[in-house]
Design brief:
- This protein is of the alpha+beta class.
- It has one domain.
- About 15% of the residues lie in helices and about 30% in strands.
- The chain has a 20-stranded mixed beta sheet that branches. It has a two-stranded antiparallel ribbon with strand order 3-4.
- The longest helix has 18 residues.
- It is globular.
Amino acid sequence: MTTPRFFVGVAAAAVLLGWASAYAADKPPLTTELAEKYGLKPGMKITKENADVIKDLVPEAVYNRTKKGDYSFTIGKFPEPDTLAPAKLWDKDYLAAVENNRGKYDTDEDGGIIDKATKERPWPMPLGLPYPDLDLNEPPAKVGAKIAWNLVSLAGACGEQDHEGARIVSAARDGAYDRYVGIKALRQYIDFRRNPTTLVRPVIFQEIFFFNEPSDAFGTSNLTWRWADPKKWDSVWGYSPSTRRVKRSTAANRSDATLGTEFTQDDGTPMYNGKVEMMSWKYVGKGVHLIPVSRGAKQADDDFTAHITYDAVHSNSPSYSSAPTAYEQRYKNVTFGYQENPQQHASWWTPNMLWVPVPVYFVEAEPKDPYYNYGRQIFSIEQNSYAPVFKQIYNRSGEYWRTGTLWAEFPRFKHDGKEYVCFDGVGTVIGDEKLNRGTAGLDNGNIPLGKTGGSTVHYNTGRSGDIFQLEQFLQYGK
């Protein structure tokens, strides 16, 4: 079993000092301070020859692959050392909402959100982080659940999303991919959104996954309602075109492999796309990790500025031309190992990403459902923004299994003098350490196919929630 080196120190500190004294809250260090501490400079290449430089900045499995030459890193820098500080990152409405949330909420025995005044679960939850002030002296289970809620609250600022054509490829260490999936996803956030909806169904969000490719899976789809009730797990229905029937699934099915890849639906944005209350959470400490940021489509090779936030443009989709505040995800410059000639990196690795050292929280999650495919997961989450960085995945037997990263962005859009910022996971890499294969996914564009252009993701679309009605979904089977 692989044991991250970091947790040896965590355990010792917990025994000798107790959780409260070992993990007192303090101001997160700036990225420039961390870069100096670890001897990192923009443009610096980390390969198998100098992998020891990042030994403490990535999960052990990632370090080992770097030592073997499977992975490499290019160090980047943010436009400002405090780019991810909330006051720099978010818009005025979001910051005001966070201020209004301050001190209002607690967690219950299930890890669910409750209002301190009413002891009830509010619905819908307002915009913004529900727990902007973490008290690391609280029990680790409570702190872990609060960090998880801050993480999953981020994407609600996007309102309605239309992922027109995400692409996922799976491959062995060497050679071309042998599994390919094209997905369209529609999602409507009800909790943590900017503007209220008229929906009376008390859900956190509702979404539809529709498989466009491969051809033999075309039309396969599923509908999910994620209930606000902490004791009520997801309602999931799946449609199979081969049988032309809609079938009820379980929440654990979201941890099933997606058409033979290493990706599951719960690996999606924000790196844990399951229900918070389905896991037992535990905060286990703080550290430093490298956060991935993709290059812009026209970004020069010698520009090592990591633009994790950027000015987005209005949606170019005819479907949203009349939605004044709809905006779209930018296109990127991302390369994959299987596209190299000659190939040097693991097929699923993205060698031209930029990586910036950031302060992170480490949080463990144990599934409560015995049929959930993953065992323990260890997440590293950036301390200022709560953006995801890495997750380390164990199987149900306690053996180390997979290492994943999801790179995220904070697009910002201006309309009539008002700014809108949201959060979205835009790409993923998941390496299977047992089978020596992995999956890479990209939210927009034709880059995985070696082409330019392609579909993208649209935010704040204002799309009606009618499409998520079960009655409409059942029409697939008629």
